[in-house]
Amino acid sequence: MSLPTPHPALRTSFTEAVGITYPLVQTGMGWVAGPRLVAASAEAGILGLLASATMTVEQLSSALDEVRSRTDRPFGVNMRVDAADVDERLALMIAAGVKVASFVGAPNKAVIDRCHAAGLFVIPTIGARRHAEKVASLGVDALIAQGGEGGGHTGSVPTSLLLPEAVDAVQGASMVLGAGGFYSGRGLVAALAYGAQGVAMGTRFLLTKESTVPDSVKARYLAATVNDTVVSTKIDGAPQRVIRTEVINGIEGRSWIRSLPAALTNAHHFRKETGLTLGAMLNEGRSMKKDNELTWPQVIMAANAPMMTKAALVDGRPEDGILPTGQVTGVIDALPSVAELVTSIIDEANATLERLTR
Questions:
Q1: What is the pLDDT at residue 42?
Q2: I need a labelling partner for 342 at 20 to 30 A (CA). Which of 8, 12, 73, 243 fits?
């Protein structure tokens, strides 16, 4: 299908910097943002982020090859902040012509410098004004300010407050993108009005035809209302927004001591899935403990999130897993293709801008 011509206001410094047509990002959702979804996003003129945090180096290499076999347009890779094998992963990304290195949280200066030396555009995701100030001072090219409405790990400040705060905080030192609650062209225009250079969406792209999440699980998302999500700290110690299910109700009513055996088992499985060494996991645990002010029991619980997510979103067993989501799931009622979704968003943004400037 032919894609729409964007209103001049939709040509931002971000679209120019990363070489995309529209100021939209499909986020790096673990187990979800695979080659098929990322390539479809790139072909639709937006930035797709490949989720590599749940991949081994060998799996990342294969995924990069598959994306490149499907598209020659710009895309990015979402990485772990403290990945022990970051140099090896960066080498693969450079060879594949990856444009963007994305991080959940703040990468350290050494990692940022390594990315910049390789010609990569660096984008971390943050959830507080002070974190925006920190990553901007470290020299990141852009940042995604995700408000409390967002899916997965999230903060408590709503996007309507966090986004303009982040824009003011960085004072142009880094570009700012908004995330949390976005799904439409009107939302994109609102973000631009706040001073953002674009928006990032996760749940909205999870609920597309190219997403590999099983259809039966997508139906659970489509059936949810805006009041059917909850932010829990019992899954892995950090606040995480998920759809409320019997699994979540059980976790919420259980002490961490009772949850510890399952967490240790999940930690073992996660290490096997990602190829992490025990030493690397311990180093990441120490970093998580320091950066997020977690206790050691909470750190041990951290392996719960990716493995319980895999159970639901890959294996199709939501009765054994969790359904990470933004509140926006409550206003989504269709499963378009990525191209159809991007077209509808840009058409609505164009119409909104025309209406406002008439």
A1: 98
A2: 243
